[in-house]
Amino acid sequence: DYHERLKNWLLYAQSQDITCAGALTDAKGNRALPPSMQKDPDLNLRVVEVRDDGIVVRGAKCMICGVAAANEIFCLPGGAYKEADKDYAVAFVVPKDIEGLTIVETRRPSDMREYEEGFDIPNDIGGITQAYLLFNDVFVPKERVFMCGEYKYCLNVIQYFTSTYRAAIGGCVAGQGDLKVGASIIMARANGLSIRTFYDKLIRMQINNETTFGMGVAASALGKEHPSGCWLCDSLLANSNKVHVATLPYETNRLAQEIAGGIGETGCLPSYKDIMDPKYGSLIKKYVEAGLDWETRARGARLVEWLTLGPGVPGCMHGGGSPDAARLMIRVSTPWEKWVELAKRVGGIKADVPEPPKPKK
Question: How big, in percent rounded to 5, are the helix, strand and coil portions of the chain?
Answer without folding.
Answer: 50, 15, 35
